[in-house]
Amino acid sequence: MTINDFIKKRPYLVWYTKNYDNLSEEAIVEAVLNYGDFDDVRKMIKTLGIKKTAAIFRKKSRQKRCNYRPEIKNYFNFYFDKHA
Predict the structure, then answer these.
(1) pLDDT tens-digit profile of 35-78?
(2) Contacts of 14 (CB under 8 A, 6+ apart)
(3) Rounded to two decimals, what is the model's pTM?
(4) Which of 36, 45, 52, 53 would give a disulfide with 40, using CB separation of 3.0 to 4.6 Å?
(5) CA-wise closest residue to 44 among 26, 64, 62
(6) How buried is 54 (Cβ within 10 angstroms: 0-12 exposed, 13-18 middle, 19+ buried)?
């Protein structure tokens, strides 16, 4: 399963588009971490891998302007520090 197939099965996470094939990995990781439940997060990590998911999250969350909610950013900083 690719990450785009994964997000096609969860359109409620990216309600702002119907073009799932053109979504970047960064946009999908952001949507799943911000709006998905933990089962969605686990399945995404299984699809992408923990190290790649952590790398995408860290890269985007360290930018001056990011779309991660503060509580999500805090939680997943701790989560990926421990597990990745």
Answers:
(1) 999 999 999 999 999 999 999 999 999 998 989 999 999 999 99
(2) 7, 20, 23, 27, 28, 31
(3) 0.89
(4) 36
(5) 26
(6) buried
Altogether, the residues listed in the chain come to a count of: 84
The string of DSSP codes covering 29-81 is: HHHHHHH--HHHHHHHHHHH-HHHHHHHHHHHHTSSS--S-HHHHHHHHHHHH
CA-to-CA distance for 26 and 65, rounded, in angstroms? 14
Euclidean distance between CA atoms 54 and 77, whole angstroms? 9
Between CA 84 and CA 41 the distance in angstroms is 14
